[in-house]
Amino acid sequence: MSGLREKQKADRRRRILEAARKLFAKAGPDATTIEAIADAAGVSGVTVHNYYGTKSGVLLALVAESDRELLEKMARELPGQSDDVIDLARRFAAIIRDHAITFLDKEIWRQVFAASIAEANSRFGKSYHSLDHQLALVLVREIEVLQARDAVSPDVSAYDLGKAIFSLQNMRFVNFISFDEMTDVESDAAFLRDLRSIFGALPPDRR
Amino acid sequence: MSGLREKQKADRRRRILEAARKLFAKAGPDATTIEAIADAAGVSGVTVHNYYGTKSGVLLALVAESDRELLEKMARELPGQSDDVIDLARRFAAIIRDHAITFLDKEIWRQVFAASIAEANSRFGKSYHSLDHQLALVLVREIEVLQARDAVSPDVSAYDLGKAIFSLQNMRFVNFISFDEMTDVESDAAFLRDLRSIFGALPPDRR
DNA sequence: GAAAAATTTTTTAGGCAATAAAAAATTTTT
DNA sequence: AAAAATTTTTTATTGCCTAAAAAATTTTTC
């Protein structure tokens, strides 16, 4: 049996990602060639393709790493801060926006998001979605807390509600990164309108 | 002054789109080269690029055309069918899903959606978004009808609510096209869970 | 209505992503 | 240590996309 081969593979993966991180940060993904990443990582260009499929695949893998940080930050900063679901949702969205914009600029996020949809079925598309799911679960847990405090109806599924709010937040995020001139304050205000209108939609006798 | 030049341009645009439609339908966008489209349209490959930017741009322009049909269909089939906002939202989503899946398969829709985000600031990315907006407005108008019938609270903005529901629907649509095995029945059920949880979220004393 | 000017398309050339297949190198097994 | 299996590299090709020069065509001017 072995071990060396696996270790070398893990090593190459790490080196490729490390090289890509540096080069993307310096010149952006568009100006960075696969060949340059390969050179810096000490492998051939074809090997980069073998490991990550496409250049977007490399980018997605990089974002997946940063998302793990985001997940920790979320689990640290979200709980116990909100008294109602609207405030909770806004904090959730703000943490994601802040983290995203600190990490990469909007143009690159557009590419990331596009890749996550186009490559939804690839290995890294899936890991991206899985992290989204885990983020949503942090929200779900907080909703359960609010339910225990009677700030959210006990009749709804916290899981369903968390996923739905995550969806709304996600579309707002797409909207935010789609327009270079949109500020986080504007995005927050728009999200607030979403939440207010949707939570206040049904008249009391219809619920 | 002129006219001939403009007419020839419009003509080339039309011919390129017509050629692309046929070739995409026959072999799919991946297997269709820009050069093949250009040949069929009687122009050079560079001209296709000059007119539509990228192959995704051509695809987006084609989808924008079909979306105009969808808009008509929506304006024809949505109004006056629903007594409550959840039913309205589900019908809205069903019409979009049906139209989409009749027109193109999921793999291609993933490319379209990815392109609409990646090229959000291009000419055709914008026209795509504009049609989304018009679709949402059909929904807004129906919400206003429901408000007049006291099925939706008079306190919320019909516009904001329409946009928010559209967002939710849009994420469900992305989810639907992201997984080849997901049926429209499953997607509808998931959307229903979104709507029920979100509309029922707040306890009566919190509204 | 012909020459000049302006605009648009085509040709030409090149960079790069992505894929496939053969060749070479390296690890694992016997 | 040789054979087998696996993985990377080399090599070659296709196609998207861009830029710049050349050619063609329309519009304007006289």
Largest pleated sheet of chain A: none
CATH superfamily of the largest domain in chain A: Tetracycline Repressor, domain 2
Ranges of chain A where pLDDT stays below 50 over 5 or more residues in a row are: none
**The number of domains of chain A:** 2
First and last CA, distance of chain A: 63 Å
Content-based structural category of chain A: mainly alpha
Number of E-type strands of chain A: 0
Identify the biggest protein-protein contact and residues per side: A-B, 48 and 48 residues
Helix-strand sequence of chain A: HHHHHHHHH
CATH architecture of the largest domain in chain A, by name, is Orthogonal Bundle
Number of helices of chain A: 9
Cα radius of gyration of chain A in angstroms:
20 Å
Oligomer: homodimer
Helicity range of chain A: over 70%
Query: Overall pLDDT of chain A, averaged?
Result: 94
- What name does the CATH topology of the largest domain in chain A carry? Tetracycline Repressor, domain 2
Query: What is the level 1 CATH name of the largest domain in chain A?
Result: Mainly Alpha
What is the general shape of chain A?
elongated
Strand content of chain A: under 5%
Keywords (chains A, B): DNA-binding, Transcription, Transcription regulation
DNA-binding region (chains A, B): 33-52
InterPro entries (chains A, B): Homeodomain-like_sf, HTH-type_TetR-like_transc_reg, HTH_TetR
Organism (chains A, B): Thioclava marina
Structural account:
The structure is a homodimer of 207-residue chains. The first copy, chain A, contains nine helices and no strands. Chain A is mainly α. Chain A is elongated, with a radius of gyration of 20 Å. The mean pLDDT of chain A is 94. In chain A, helix 5 packs across helix 8 and helix 6 packs across helix 8. Chain A folds into two domains: 52 residues, Arc Repressor Mutant, subunit A, CATH 1.10.10.60; 146 residues, Orthogonal Bundle (Tetracycline Repressor, domain 2), CATH 1.10.357.10. Chains A and B meet through helix 6, helix 8 and helix 9 of A and helix 6, helix 8 and helix 9 of B. Chain A binds a DNA duplex (30 and 30 nucleotides) through helix 1 and helix 3.
